[in-house]
Amino acid sequence: MSKMAKIVKECIDKYVGGNKYFDEMDDRIKYDEEILEELVEDMYCFGRVLILSGQFGRQMVSYLKEKHRYIDYILLVGSPRKMEKVTIKDIRLENFNVKLREAVFVDDTFFSGRTFFYCKGVVEATFGLQVNHAIVAYDGGKHEQSYLESLYRYYDYYDINGKPY
């Protein structure tokens, strides 16, 4: 069983669902170096700038500064979900290949895609980078997305009523 599958199982067993389930899962993802490393490894195959946001993004930046100083990133803060303006908090573009002009969005969780599309718009308008791919630890979206890769997709294991397959 993968690390992400273990986290999901433990959170479901403890909370069944709801805000406490998601809050604990988010905390466990963003502070788990094994999960962060899996996300970095998946991203690195794209060889692009990381687009990060929120508390998860701040934690990932700390991890990158400690373990992967060669990976470039753009950290955005503000929450589209909470109707907050998204702004640039931190940026490192030291090793960026200007010919590629591509970036990949990396986050802890994905549901509707709102955060991805909002951050994509900010980065594309501000930097002229193309953001056509996202990598997340947990995909809770009901429909698969061609632009999204995840370490764990909830609906691969549970039906719409939360019953395991």
How are the SSEs placed, and which strands pair?
Blueprint: H1 3-15, H2 18-30, H3 33-44, E1 49-53, H4 54-67, E2 73-77, E3 87-92, E4 102-110, H5 114-127, E5 130-139, E6 148-153
Parallel strand pairs: 1-2, 1-4, 4-5, 5-6
Antiparallel strand pairs: 2-3
Helix pairs in contact: 1-2
CATH classification class: Alpha Beta
Give, in spatial order, the strands making up the sheet with the most strands.
3-2-1-4-5-6
- Secondary structure category: alpha/beta
Q: How many domains make up the 3D coordinates?
A: 1
Q: Write down the overall mean pLDDT.
A: 90
Q: Tell me, what's the shape?
A: globular
Compute the number of strand runs: 6
- Please state the second-level CATH architecture: 3-Layer(aba) Sandwich
Low confidence ranges? none
End-to-end distance: 16 Å
| H/E element sequence | HHHEHEEEHEE
Percent of residues in helical segments?
40-55%
The CATH topology is what? Rossmann fold
Tell me what the structure shows.
The structure is a single chain. This protein has a single domain, classed as Rossmann fold. The chain has a six-stranded mixed sheet. The two termini are 16 Å apart. The chain has five helices and six strands. The mean pLDDT is 90. α1 packs antiparallel against α2. The chain is globular. The protein is an alpha/beta fold.
